[in-house]
Design a protein that fits this description.
single chain; alpha/beta; 2 domains; 10-stranded mixed sheet
């Protein structure tokens, strides 16, 4: 089953298309704004009033994890192995970084994940071949995430990807590439990456 996790974004979020919806704290307000109903709401409700009439998992305000991390753990506990995460951007920069790290957390737990923003999709990948379903002419960026990154064997990219080494401090070296065809592929030979695919 594919589920949605809806975070408490300060900006607009993409249309939610999944049938099973997990709202993280005030993310439930965006779910309601789209005329949908969350199946479960997880949070400490430090950023919103706790609603009534919903399946709620109340978290302690003083905790080590974010509400989004608790939502990822909920997926694992309920054998949900596919998720779309909404609302990763639009707020505080530190919150946005934590939200992006949810993709890595899901990956480590064996959960297939993607983040959807109004203008792009975001993936997390580690070593191995990466194939992107992308429209010809679309812009995409590959960002080292957590450690140094080596990528090679780029196919259908305007700017060559071949034996490209990107340290975690030189993130601009693989930003704003362009797809020459409707599919792009490359291989991560070391490290891990966030991949931004712009529509």
């Amino acid at each position: 089953m594919r589920a949605a996790i809806v975070l408490n974004s300060k900006g607009h979020i993409a249309p939610i298309t999944e049938d099973y919806i997990i709202a993280a704290d005030a993310g439930y307000l965006e779910v309601l704004n789209q005329g949908l109903k969350p199946n479960v709401i997880i949070g400490d409700f430090d950023s919103s009033k706790m609603p009534e009439g919903y399946n709620i998992i109340k978290l302690n305000i003083e905790k080590d994890d974010t509400d989004g991390q608790a939502a990822i753990d909920y997926l694992k506990d309920n054998n949900i192995d596919d998720v779309v995460i909404y609302g990763v951007g639009g707020g505080r920069i530190d919150h946005e970084l934590c939200n992006l790290s949810l993709l890595a957390q899901a990956y480590k737990l064996g959960i297939n994940s993607i983040a959807k923003e109004p203008d792009c999709d975001i993936l997390y990948k580690e070593t191995g071949k990466v194939s992107l379903d992308i429209k010809k002419g679309s812009t995409f960026s590959i960002i080292a995430f957590g450690n140094d990154l080596e990528i090679t064997n780029g196919i259908n990219t305007k700017y060559p990807i071949n034996n490209l080494y990107i340290t975690k401090y030189e993130l601009g070296r693989s930003v704003s590439n362009i797809a020459l065809e409707d599919n792009v592929s490359f291989e991560i030979t070391k490290g891990s990456a966030l991949i931004f695919i712009y529509r």
